[in-house]
User: Fold this.
Amino acid sequence: MTLGRFLLRRLGSGLLTILGVSVLVFAFLHIVPGDPIDHLAGDNATPGQREALEKCLGLDKSLPMQFVSFLGHIVDGTLGSQCSGGAGDKRTVAGRIAEVFPYTLWLALAGMLVAIVLALPLGVLAAVKRGTWIDTLATTASLSAIAMPQMMFAPLLLFWFFLSLGWFPGPGEVGLHALVLPALAVGTHLMAMLSRMTRSTMVEVLGEDYVRTARAKGLPESRVLFVHALRNALLPVITVVGLQFGSMLSGAIVIENVFSRPGLGNTLLQGITERNYPVVQGCVLVIAVIYVLVNILVDLAYGFADPRIRRS
Amino acid sequence: MKTKLKLSPSAWVGAVMLGTFIVLGIIGPWIAPYDVASKAIDLDHKFEGMSAAHWFGTDSNGRDALSQLLFGARKALELSGIVVAITSVIGLSLGTIAGWYRGWIDEIVMRFVDMLLAFPGILLNIAIVATVANPGVGVVILALSANGWVGYARVARGQVLALREREFVTAAVALGASNTRVIGKHLLPNIMGPALVPMSFGLGSVILIEAALSFLGLGPQVDYTWGSMLDQARTFLWKGDWVKVYALVPGLAIMWVVLGANLLGDGLRDRFDPRNRGR
Assistant:
């Protein structure tokens, strides 16, 4: 199969997924009883204001028509109007998301960086020292970190490094320095998964013939480990990194909430408190699209990293 | 067919950890030293540290943290038990039907599975809970069930696809057994073992997601779930040393259950699916 056809097929099925997700979200938001107008308009809104708001949200139209205009807003890239500042509010959902999106992107990328930088040496070390107390310690630490709720870890990080030690800025700050603690909090889980993954693939690879050959050639052990072995052990690790990018975005919901950082997650939660359905739909959709795109990229990266896959 | 369930030591550790949670979840509210209802509010004793009277201190309303932990264990057990029951029944049925009948049913079920897998689950859970102004336990159960069945469906379908090629199934069909009989008598008993794997993992992840939902204020408005205890800890972060204890108590409890569920799940997977051994 050529690369072009592969891409086309993956994009097609990705598009189907996104469509499915939007139908699902739309259906849930509209089937469940409860009047969003009550919330958005406030208690002392005049009937006229309510009507205008209803029009702004498109709730005066029939359900199928609402779905059509929902799809239309996806196609034209606005994701609909927010209508949160009353009916006259013409700011689009896409605008609001674009404003905060870079914060979430940086948080996710920084989290991944933390995870990779810590996980690779840890995994290699555990694989090399297999069966020793170092290995047991590393495994126990990873298993515990996977099970550790971010809701406990993030506030404790804030408590120690901001309140007690004062090393890092607290909630509400967004500079580079303020990115450290959230990145650590959002990356721990991935780090634990990656180090386990690195360990198990490294153990496998270290038993391969070409590693023995490399050692027999008299190459220094560091070169054998980091060039011959690690390069080949990285393949499954790349997949996990890619597949977990989406969960970094959803993990960002809790982290952004704890650190009061602007971002997709916090916007989603604000949308929920405001009962602003276009915002909720928009955030969910954007995260879904990124998730699907990253999955496709992972498949491509896989092909580049392993020539055997590219050829088949 | 009685086979002895051989599990690794770490799986047994996981089983014991999970067992402790289940036992405490059942008897928790009876052995809790104090009540946690709003009439137990005692503003003279708020934000207390560890003491003989309150082993884990008290919360912002002077209620005993240990009691909240125990009542919270009951809540967590109820919720995760119900969600695992619902999702496993739905998932195993759909997976079995898809794997046995194949054709368009299989196609539809697997499309749904693919779609739900290509999407961060907690987002769907949040989106569903977000539709209701004051989500009760029922809504949270619905939200967690909406995508929770996927793992079971995949396991069941995979098992059935393998089983349908086996002689005893062919023999049953040749003897004229009806589809219901084949499924009930020959397929289901054989997928029950492997189904324990997603059940174990599912229990842990349900507890984690439920805690995240209540932490974000999207769960049932009860203030002694583990998630809302964590929410309180972060709300009163500036309270100093009190936070350490009050955040660690529910946090470590969640960690205990999830770690136990994962250890047991890993062990069960090694036992039932040799391909994954060593991973």
Remarks:
- Chain A has a mean pLDDT of 81.
- Chain A touches chain B through 51 residues (CB under 8 Å).
- The two ends of chain A are 7 Å apart (CA to CA).
